[in-house]
């Protein structure tokens, strides 16, 4: 019962710790996303026509000099984080599928980031994709999903972005404390488990030895019993008989 209780408790701790760590990694990516895209939005808000002209120029190349950009249209955007090694292919796919009607800005994260899905530490890149229209938005989202890019919310309003960033930092601080407490609790449970480890090892060896011996019994179908022959010290016969009676 003690073993099962400790096993259940450890599994529960590990499950909670994994969920907390995944949330921590997602918030870490969101923190970098908000910090590094701020410059992109400052540039776009300071010169929105320039971004539209960049999209228009790329579109002209695609169509052989025929621009279709509408300077009066509002720009939409999607921000996220993607493994650095996929960024070049990701940008190329956006160009082809969206026919040049997108404008991509990117910035590499200097630190190694632990991926929320795989748990592996990899180099990642923050990106923002500017586009016009709902159709292009759907295309960009599907490409992001295909490349397993993690998309994160990013408000258009600078004040809302700042509030979100402050909230993320607060949650990261709280999670750091909770993760530390979870780790301490796991260490205490493991320490308690280690005190019983030797006893459990002996029990397991005895159980294995018993079943190994029982596998050498002959099954008497007619009498519905197992028959075994062995050598035993004469002085131990009484104890053996007593053990057999207790076992049966």
Number of helices: 6
- By CATH reckoning, the class of the largest domain would read Alpha Beta
CATH topology of the largest domain: Alpha-Beta Plaits
**Intertermini distance:** 24 Å
Shape estimate = elongated
Q: What is the helix content?
A: 55-70%
Mean pLDDT: 85
Using only CA atoms, what is the Rg?
32 Å
Query: Strands of the largest sheet, in order across it?
Result: 2-5-1-6
In N-to-C order, the SSE pattern is HHEHEEEEHEHEEH
Return the domain count.
Answer: 2
The class by helix and strand makeup works out as: alpha+beta
> Which band does the percent of strand residues land in?
5-15%
Report the major sheet: 4 strands, antiparallel
CATH architecture term of the largest domain: 2-Layer Sandwich
Unreliable stretches: 60-71
Number of strands: 8
List its salient traits:
single chain; 248 residues; alpha+beta; Alpha-Beta Plaits; 2 domains; four-stranded antiparallel sheet; two-stranded antiparallel sheet; 6 helices; elongated
């Amino acid at each position: 019962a003690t073993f099962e209780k400790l096993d259940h408790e450890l599994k529960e701790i590990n499950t909670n710790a994994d969920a907390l760590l995944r949330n921590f990694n997602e918030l870490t990516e969101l923190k970098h996303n908000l910090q590094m895209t701020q410059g992109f939005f400052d540039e776009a808000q300071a010169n929105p026509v320039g971004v539209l002209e960049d999209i228009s120029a790329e579109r002209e190349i695609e169509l052989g000099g025929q621009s279709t950009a509408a300077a009066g249209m509002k720009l939409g955007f999607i921000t996220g984080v993607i493994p650095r090694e996929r960024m070049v292919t990701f940008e190329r796919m956006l160009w082809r599928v969206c026919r040049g009607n997108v404008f991509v800005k990117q910035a590499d994260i200097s630190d190694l980031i632990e991926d929320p899905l795989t748990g592996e530490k990899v180099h990642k890149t923050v990106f923002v994709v500017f586009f016009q229209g709902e159709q292009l938005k759907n295309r960009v989202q599907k490409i992001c999903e295909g490349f397993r890019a993690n998309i994160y919310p990013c408000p258009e309003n600078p004040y809302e972005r700042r509030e979100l960033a402050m909230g993320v930092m607060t949650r990261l601080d709280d999670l750091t404390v909770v993760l530390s407490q979870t780790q301490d609790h796991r260490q205490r449970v493991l320490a308690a488990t280690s005190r019983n480890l030797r006893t459990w090892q002996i029990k397991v060896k005895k159980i294995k030895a018993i079943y190994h011996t029982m596998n050498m019994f002959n099954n008497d179908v007619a009498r519905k019993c197992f028959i075994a022959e062995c050598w035993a010290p004469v002085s131990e016969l009484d104890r053996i008989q007593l053990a057999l009676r207790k076992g049966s």
